[in-house]
């Protein structure tokens, strides 16, 4: 694993994802499901959306798995447990997106339960969600009231405790595996005006995990690809949330290795 991650590493990962077209199983929320599926298709992966009690069967077969608790119900929670157990049974990787765990104790409890079944390879969340997984609660619904750097200590602690990589989203994204730390300074404010953009990021992380050995590189690659696509979407003339959402999917399809090498701001 490289000590320092660069745009070249991300560009190579993107080319690998497009070559392999991994099947990514998303147990995600109803608000984000269509955008998530379209984003995965655009970037070159193959999405699947099964969240019922039989979700374990697909989770066992998929190359990548995302568990997003955004609109969880008792039935879908059972599907999430089944999917994580299936990944445990095969020693498989998966991504946890603990949506609104900072504000809603039931979600934090479910996230903790899933962590105990089989530790996720990557936890992706906003600062309040990551802080909640270490017992510090806050946030406003699905929104954070903390910055990524505020959650830095919690992210490193979570990474060390569970042997996972933690990706904290914000104006400057903060990613750590407990040893290495990466900051990604790409992105556009309109990403926060499109419902499900963070959920898309979790799915992209699952896709990159299917083709990249290094979890920190996978999380960084997903973050760079989405945030660069956001910049490119606004630059193409999409300056309002509705047009931006469409342009974001278009730019996820258009972004290539050359775009990443030109635009990525990784520190």
From TrEMBL:
Record bears the keyword Signal: no
Catalysed reactions, as listed in the record: 5-(2-hydroxyethyl)-4-methylthiazole + ATP = 4-methyl-5-(2-phosphooxyethyl)-thiazole + ADP + H(+)
Residues the entry annotates as binding ATP: 124, 169
Keywords assigned: ATP-binding, Kinase, Magnesium, Metal-binding, Nucleotide-binding, Thiamine biosynthesis, Transferase
Reported cofactor(s): Mg(2+)
GO molecular function term, any single one: hydroxyethylthiazole kinase activity
InterPro entries registered for this protein in UniProt: Hyethyz_kinase, Ribokinase-like
Binding residues for substrate: 49, 196
CDD domains: THZ_kinase (cd01170)
Signal is among the record's keywords: no
Pathway: Cofactor biosynthesis; thiamine diphosphate biosynthesis; 4-methyl-5-(2-phosphoethyl)-thiazole from 5-(2-hydroxyethyl)-4-methylthiazole: step 1/1
GO terms classed as biological process: thiamine biosynthetic process; thiamine diphosphate biosynthetic process
Top enzyme category: transferase
NCBIfam families: PRK09355.1 (NF006830)
Entry similarity comment: Belongs to the Thz kinase family.
Protein's name in the database: Hydroxyethylthiazole kinase
Recorded name of the encoding gene: thiM
């Amino acid at each position: 694993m490289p000590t320092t991650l660069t745009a070249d590493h991300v560009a190579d990962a993107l080319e690998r994802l497009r070559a392999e077209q991994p099947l990514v199983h998303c147990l995600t929320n109803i608000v984000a499901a269509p955008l998530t599926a379209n984003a995965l298709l655009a970037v070159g992966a193959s999405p699947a959306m099964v969240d019922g009690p039989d979700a374990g069967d697909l989770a066992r077969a998929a190359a990548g798995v995302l568990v997003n608790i955004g609109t969880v119900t008792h039935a879908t929670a059972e599907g999430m447990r089944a999917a994580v157990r299936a990944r445990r049974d095969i020693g498989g990787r998966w991504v946890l997106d603990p949506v609104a765990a900072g504000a809603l104790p039931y979600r934090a409890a479910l996230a903790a339960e899933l962590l105990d079944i089989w530790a996720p390879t990557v936890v992706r969340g906003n600062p309040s969600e990551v802080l909640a997984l270490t017992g510090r609660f806050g946030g406003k619904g699905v929104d954070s009231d903390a910055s990524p750097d505020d959650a830095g200590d919690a992210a490193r602690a979570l990474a060390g405790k569970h042997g996972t990589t933690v990706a904290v989203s914000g104006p400057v994204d903060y990613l750590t595996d407990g040893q290495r730390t990466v900051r990604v300074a790409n992105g556009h404010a309109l990403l926060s005006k499109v419902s499900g953009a963070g959920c898309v990021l979790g799915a992209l992380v699952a896709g990159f995990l299917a083709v990249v050995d290094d979890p920190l590189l996978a999380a960084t690659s997903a973050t760079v690809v989405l945030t660069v696509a956001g910049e490119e979407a606004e630059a193409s003339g999409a300056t309002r949330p509705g047009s931006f959402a469409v342009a974001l999917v278009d730019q996820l399809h258009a972004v290539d290795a050359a775009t990443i090498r030109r635009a990525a701001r990784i520190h």
